[in-house]
Amino acid sequence: MSNEFSVLGRGVVRKDAVEKVRGEAKYIPDIQLPKMLHAKFLRSPHAHAKITSIDTSKAEKLPGVKCVLTHNNVPRVHPLRKFEYLLDETVHYPGEEVAAVVALTAEIAEEALRLIEVKYEVLPAVFEVEEAMKPDAPLVHPEYGTNIYHGTELVRIPRLTEDGWLRLEVGDVDKGFAEADYILDRVYETPIQHNCSPIPRAVICEWTGEKLTCWADTQTPLFLWRDLADSLGIPQSNVRIISNCAAGGYGGKTPEKTATLTAIMAKRTRRPVKTSYSRAEDFIGTHRRISFKNHNKIGVKRDGTITAIDSKIIANWGRDTFAQYMVQATALLACTMLYRYHNSKAETCGVMTNIIGYGPMNGFGGPEAIYSIEKLIDEAAEKIEMDPVEFRLENCMRYGDRAMEFEQVVYGPIKWGILGPDLNSFPELIQKCAEKAQWKEKWKGWRTPVAANGPKRKGIGVAIGMHHCSFWPSSAIVKMNQDGTANVLSMGVEIGQGYSTAIAQVVAETLGIRYEDVNPITSDTGVAPAAVGNVASSGTSSLINSARLAAEDARRKLFELAAPRLNATVDAMEARNGKIYIKGTDRMIPIGSICLTHWQITGTSNNPPVESIRDEKTGQVIHAYSAAVTIAEVEVDIETGMVDVVRITSGHDCGRAINPIIVENQIDLGLAMSKGWVCTERFVVDGKTGVMLNPNLLDYKLITFLDMPQSEDIGRIIVERPSAWGPFGAKGMSETSMTAFAPAIANSIYNAIGVRIRYAFISPEAILKAIEKADRG
Amino acid sequence: MTINLTDAREIEEAFSWLNKFWNKPTQPIFYDAKSMEEALSLLDDYKEEAKIIAGGVDVIGLMKNKIISPRMLVNIKNIPHLDYISETSDVLDIGALTRIQDIGRSSLISSRYPLLSEVAQSVGSPQIKNMGTIGGNLCQEVRCWYYRRSPITGISYNCRRKNEDGICYAMNGENENHAIIGEGECVAVCPSDMASALLALDAKINTSNPRGERVIPIGKFYTTFGNILESNEIITGIHIPKAHSYTKQRYLKFRVRKVIDFSIVSVAVVITLNNHLIWNVKIALGGVSPMPYEAVKAEEVLKGELLTETIAEKAAEASISDAMPLSKNGYKVPIVKALVKRALLE
Is this complex's ipTM strictly greater than 0.90? Predict the structure, then answer.
């Protein structure tokens, strides 16, 4: 890092470190309000059933019980524009809420649940997409008439075709396949994963008069704000969401109807109410990563040209979702953009089943698509006997290639722009990773392991990945304090990823004040201006960018006020060390003295529209994407099927590393989450009942530190090519970080054992099965 | 958090209401037994409605998931003289309250009974090793996800293990972790690796009950439905014949993660050589059966033979020749074979 910055590019002490280490940070379960009550939910044991009767009289008689909710006494609204109601007389998956009890203690509420008598008429249910797509399949929502989602009165998906498919097409794939020397046609699957936050979801609601305050563990306070106001039928001015200490959501801490139900209970009892999920409830009663069945077809020429690619993705939605088709839009872009295909087509449909619904999770469709694409690309490179690193280097996306905003895939109209010069990072990353991983020395050719020692086979493999880091509307306020320090008001959420640290670094750098003198006031809808929240890796590229603009606005105001006092023009000034200087001189005035005499100086901002960011050379609109490369080395025990990831080299492109330590943390997270996703975190759904069988952290196997490679065996490469937008050229990289790990692990396993595993999950069982099948020929 | 008086009174009322309604206290009585006599007499009074608690690692989980709801919890952790590791001329004695951590760290055990040391070190996590006792480890309930499912989630399985009329849901369900050998009424596996290690070491379990004491060979301690302890019986110690100086011991555990997880398969081998020939051998398998399983056929293959790769492979094959895998756990068979072979040769 050059010395051009004073705060940027440094691994400063995180803003939230001390309070979290000391236990002073207040997560939702830590908050205790006077007279607070506790809520618990009764859940359906059935995958699909109609409630024929529900008797709550005994529960209501239990002393300490203050309110019981069932479908009979809650408003009939669709939270988050989903199919579901707050509480419904039909349940659609095992785990759906049937009733809620609020009581003086959580124990009493839980005891009360046992006193509620429910009679069900069990209805036919379906769990697998193939079954659900058959014409005579049981319907998840019988009134809807089909299991293939095509929108509702509340949710319009303009680009969806009548048969329920969402498509994205470039060039002519038929022509492309006709030009190919080889065509490969493969089916892959991706597994379900659960977000598994360190703290299960929790919410507290309290009414004061007509005003509702909601302490929520969410990464999208704006969405929750809108949804609470809509569902309760009250103006947003009467709702305040505070989410300033959320706990790792990995995409999943999005609004739940739980907040609305909790608000209703708080209103009926006129006391604050807390809902705090158990680990098991968090597993079975929220949502999970989408799962795909990918049918991929690729055409290649002997010279390494990809002539066409065609991807067909069928997604298992489970009972419902609020992110209708957005995840698949990301997947379609990943399928059509990752390489420089001239002819590409991708299509997808969402199929509803009677298992838990899906929601956003780190990567949002990208890793799911790329896990399959990158295995296919490897197979194609093998077909033409080309080195897989070289094949990717030749074909990977870069500056000037087509790009667009992912929402357009759903909402249209499709307006292709391009990838900016920053995306020339891709070939650079591939080369740097190959060098650091000693690819040339280790790669012994296709179907040849790096080394063999008894039953242990060492393999090496590569994969690349990408993700959009959206440039979204966002605002921020920089409020100068009277001593020259600053508060920055932002709707972004500190959810453990380092948001409050990065925003403070950017604001301090822009204002020329100390990092310690910036106080981020985050995610309080009572004070923070509108922004989407921390989704789609946009926290840095969109939200912190608006903070930079607000800081620039404040700085401009400071300069204007300083100008007459320094007897200079605004252009001649610069801010550093907490002072405003006339450039190149010692003449200065402390920012604090301007702030004290001018009472309140406030900078505000709105991000400029996407279309305004154009490439200097071509004049075309630039879209923000970031790139990732992983080379994995594994050791596979071919007698037991055990896979050990022994070494990882991973390169990431983030435009500008505002805080390099946080960037490295995100790389490690991507590795841990990817390895868990495809190797250990099996989400076990009972084939007969649709029940998730392992809702605990013993049976659902999050990987531990010991299951990661040693830290010195993780090579983390950061390439900084500033993008045309984002604060100081920074882009989002957290979701990108997840995209390349899983396929690189899969491809290195192939190199080790010589058998491709196209199943979703690389368990010892899957490895043994694949080896056995290969041995049988 | 301060609770106002009205609420406090109402909370009390709630629990007395519940006790009356269910005709049973919602919370068990926790009794701190000071002596073995006191503990046994309480167990005798409450019979099936009492549970023993020492480290609490397993019993608390079962209570939280409402798999058991005892009226009485008898804490035996403060009974003196049950926490020891001692070796006499012909036997190693371990007190029932000896923590897994202490077994894993004992230099006596690591030098003379490395098998036990390896097992102890592989148990759960440091927290669990610090709390759990060897007696508790042997008495653990199975980890079957149907059996353990908490009704608090709205879903529970009144399975064969809980109820004679119940069915085994794993038998034709998600049985990847379940038994590949056994009678089949309940296919959950014994979760205790300590049990397989003790089986390989020919250990005996000493118990106390109001009528006196019993010595139970570890091979007779378990049935398909759990251990054979009476409701008024407490393990007091483990008795292990002194290891022969020509004895080699090996323990291998296969699991998905390197810590925390229970075994998918584990193998404990104790082998005594005489003039390079196998004079005596014990092979115990964990994770394959409702009880720790002695691979007798493999032992027969080995006895009197020279320990070579060929004979080890033959023994590995024989070790699991009685396996009848369920729909989703056939993968355990090759893993057992690999582990047996390695345990013999490594």
Answer: yes
